[in-house]
Amino acid sequence: MKGIDTTFLIDVLRNDNAAVLKSLELDKETIVFTTESCVYELVSGICRQKTNKERLMHDMETILNKMTVLPLDHKAAVKAGEISANLTEKGRIIDDIDCLTAGILLTNGCNNIVTRNVRHFERIDNLKVENY
User: Fold this and answer.
1) I want to staple 3 with a disulfide (CB 3.0 to 4.6 A). Which of 26, 48, 113, 115 is the partner?
2) 32, 26 Cβ separation under 8 angstroms
3) What is the CATH classification number for the domain harbouring 26?
4) Residue 117 neighbours by CB distance under 10 Å
């Protein structure tokens, strides 16, 4: 099982060569996850675009339909809070959305994330980071 971060989804939408090649590799996976926190980030970015919002929203939904989108539930929120507190104690703070994404993935048994945001996600215990 692999989890997908927002950076990867954005790069696929932008038709980035490395992301497209990685997506072909991920097509062979039995299950690929992303999270509702990633959907939030995507929609927020798309809605700030000056043009092509409808096309981008359609393309986003097409991509998301190929994977399982995991919700933020109580257990995941607790885990995300623990991740945030742990990193804050160590002086290694990351974005709240990244903590939520990691919390959702980890509580659903997914400990592997595909992202270009290696610098943030590598700080999280028990989460293997895969760059592309």
Assistant:
1) 113
2) yes
3) 3.40.50.1010
4) 18
Amino acid of residue 41: E
Q: Give me the residues paired with residue 69 across strands.
A: 34
Please give the C-alpha separations between residue 18 and each of 13, 24, 61, 83, 130, in angstroms, as whole numbers: 12, 10, 21, 29, 13
User: What is the amino acid identity at position 86?
Assistant: N
Q: Is 94 exposed, middle or buried (0-12, 13-18, 19+ CB in 10 A)?
A: buried
Number of domains in the chain: 1
Q: Which of 72, 94, 4, 81 is nearest to 42 (CA)?
A: 4
Range of the domain at 98: 2-130
Reported as a single tens digit per residue, the pLDDT across 56-80 is 999 999 999 999 999 999 999 999 9
Spell out the residues 6+ positions from residue 113 whose beta carbon is closer than 8 angstroms to its own. Answer: 2, 3, 4, 5, 101, 102, 105, 121, 127, 128, 129, 130
Distance between CA atoms of residues 121 and 8, nearest Å? 13
